[in-house]
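Subject: Interface between my chains keeps coming out wrong

I've been trying for a while to get a sensible model of this assembly. When I model each chain on its own everything looks fine, but I need the whole thing in one frame so I can look at the contacts. Pasting all components below, labels as-is. Any help appreciated, I'm running out of ideas.
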Amino acid sequence: MNISLFVACFNDTLYPETGIATVQLLERLGHRVDFPREQTCCGQVHYNTGYQDETVSLAKRFVDIFSDAETVVAPSASCVGMIREFYPKLAILSGDRKLIRDVDDLLPRVYELSQFLVNKLELEDVGACYPHRVTYHPTCHSLRMLRVGDAPLRLLKKVKGIDLVELPGAEECCGFGGTFAIKNADTSMAMLTDKIARIKETGAEVCTASDNSCLMHIGGALNRQREEVKVVHLAEILASTEAASTETNSPNSGYKKSGSQNSGSTESGPTKSGTPNP
Amino acid sequence: MVEDPVMSTAKEAILQRIRAALGDDQPGWGTQSTREDTRSLNIERGYRTHGETKKQQRVGLFVRHVEEYKARVSQISEQKLPQTVADICSAEKVKKLVIPPGLDEKWLPGPESGLTFLRDEPDLLSYDELDKSDAVLTGCFRAVAQTGTIVLNAGPGQGRRALTLIPDFHICVVRREQVTGIVPEVFWDLEPVIREEGAPVTFISGPSATSDIELDRVEGVHGPRRLHVVIV
Amino acid sequence: MSSSETGIHPTFEKTARSFLDNSQLRSNLGHATRTIRDKRRGVVDEMPDWEELREAGRQIKQKVMQNLDHYLLQLETSVTRAGGVVHWARDAAEANRIILDLIKERGETEAVKVKSLTTDEIGLNKALAKEDIMALETDLAELIVQMAGDEPSHILVPAIHKNRSEIRDLFRDKLGKPDLTDNPAELTEAARRYLRKKFLSAKIGISGSNFAVAETGTVAVVESEGNGRMCTTLPQTLITVLGIEKIIPAWQDLEVFMQLLPRSSTAERMNPYNTFWTGTTEGDGPQEFHLVLLDNGRTQVLADPAGRETLHCIRCSACLNVCPVYERTGGHAYHSVYPGPIGAILTPQLRGLSDKSAASLPYASTLCGACYEVCPVKINIPEILVHLRGRVVRHNKNWGGIRGKVNPELMGMKWLAWTLRSRSRYERAQKMARKGQRWFMHDDVISKLPGMLSGWTAMRDLRPVAEQTFREWWRTRS
Ligand code: SF4
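Reply #2:
Try treating it as a single job with all components included. I did that and got this:
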């Protein structure tokens, strides 16, 4: 299948390894991946903060760039949620008939990664190997807006060597909420504190999710608190293979710092364990 | 009603605001005529309108739910009613029992029970008399198995609302055939009564309760604190 | 309007901060919301047709809003036919005036009252007190709140912010019972005795209402303690305040809401008591019934097609109990009788966006969607929150004067959108950020940022721009 990757702006800029993992995974499964370079951002931050006029132009851009794609896949549940749920509404709001039509036409071809694998390709075992204790946080947008259901868990369960532990109170929000984390920083932090306590209870080495935005939030505090738990995007776990995991037995040894993956990758490039060095 | 000029202005103003608010040009909303159309639109009622069809099961479910509300339940044959009422009263130290108009006299215990019946006719009992009574004995309009609810509609043998409100103990007789399955059925049955008489309706699902203090459930705040359901 | 509804309040985030520090409140609230939340799930799960009921509820409410004028007139006719008197009130002041006059005309100075958000919204008790009329709250929690001179913090359990020993101290003091223990049963008994005397002698009862049936004129009060029955049954005169959105078309529609409401609110199959009355009935209950139809901003909500759905709310408080924000901040941070997710959408629409406190409420959410999932009438709260944020932004652009136009968030967002509209600008920005971030980096992470963004880094590290972005990697590949 020809897949156009929408990587999402914050993955592009802050979490390249997630994009790379997505490419590797999809190619390993025998698909052709293309990255339309014109892409930037789906407009979610603007939309959710109330800048709807500004979002319309970004939505238009997105639709133009991907209108010819056979399939669009994005390793970001919240971006796909934005596109699926709100592009049609935005289009109506803008009164632009062409946009309404184009959005209608494009939407059925846009997938979040785990939904693409499980629902479209009907795959659960993607041939991954990840010998670590992992807990899965279902992000709010993947759970309640996009309704990915248990797709990520089904994929994780089939990963070789993984020790998957259930996260207590999994469905509770981590407190991110985009600008909420800034505007209501204290409340956000109170929610995050509880989420982190739950994650620590599991004794997992890695907390994963289908969205780096929430992981950035969770990982940001883990790192500040010098916790050993790492945050790793689902795509990176699914991209890991036996070859990669034998190189190391720590989930982030591709990194030079002992902290979380947030500790950056300034020297070793955008790699980390579980994601073979490109 | 006398036309008060201030009031009629408020009424007109509100209606005016509503019409202005709804007169928007959004697709799907719109002019008066389309709004009338939406009024005649039927609501999709995909929910259940009938519950359990077997009487035995219905009664069983009703009992279970009532008991969950911590009300007492007895199941007896109708001939045993006077004795059962007498027993309940003596166990609960009831001396003065309120009897609503129209209650089946065959249900009442004889003089040997030592009970005093307070009757709400020909003169109405005062609130004070009701407050000093020990219990009230009534029938009901329906009972709902799904929720353990007793439905009163001020019909014969139920009395006016104050009778089942002020006394601290309510003994309610439910006939097995009065137990319906689910909530929609009872609203269906009530509809003619409401349309024709506008009678007041009370739903009772267990004794009054509060969870206002640290969510600890405490039975018996203002309504009758004890409820005994007798199924015949 | 009451002080809780007018005047200048701080924004949500300011008050939230002080409540977050109140660990007593947080533990009370956490316990309470978790308990109700789990119970609710249990009684909802046993309903195989829950989704169908929700959908029917939504459709009924939508139909009502589209034809509100019609149904109000129909209600007026049917209530009048059944022996009641209908009054119309444009705002809080008008409603309070009507009620005051009714009480004064009857020469009374006291009324018993059943908990009602609508009467709280209009600040009825204070308005009556000003003219020396005492409205006694008879709901246990409301009595506690009234005695403490406090504001309710939860729609359903208004005294959720008080624990048993605080209540014991209050009752010892106000009821003159120095030996009370903190046993909830004993505290409840003390309140019962005190209130019973009042009920039996009251001449005026005041209530709100959950539903009013346009077709039959039937008015409903749904409750747990029995004080609603007392107030609507025992006094000679009953005055009921009804928000105009509470109307439902037909008697049959009650079968939908009487299933949705109890399970969603108190998490019971059916709450202990429901009273439905239709005008007046000779020899039974109040012989005089007055229904006050209240607008007070509701038509303003109706005027916004994208926010209109807010009026569908049946005040069950399920959305509060699942809200992770509410659970941590409590109700007071919302500065409104309507807290939690429903408050965050209702209050700004009722009060208007010039009210800074109200305008901060649409931002008091992570948009996690838990509220939408439980709402028995399927109000899409997250979507309305986002819509209102849009209105706040536009309001500030248009009415904020010069400060509104140069506010840093607006400028930042505009710049960001401009950058994101072009690949070359976007790529340039990535490179510039990579250079610029050196100033803020420490141990390979960003742990301190200036201005607005400091909220993030106060407690979390931020990942820096990658040395090689994804698109740069992609280029090396091809
Ligand atoms: S918005 Fe929905 S969930 Fe919240 S109180 Fe209203 S009806 Fe209940």
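Reply #3:
Confirming on my end. The pocket of iron/sulfur cluster is lined by residues C 264, 313-319, 341-342, 374-377, 379 (CB under 6 Å).
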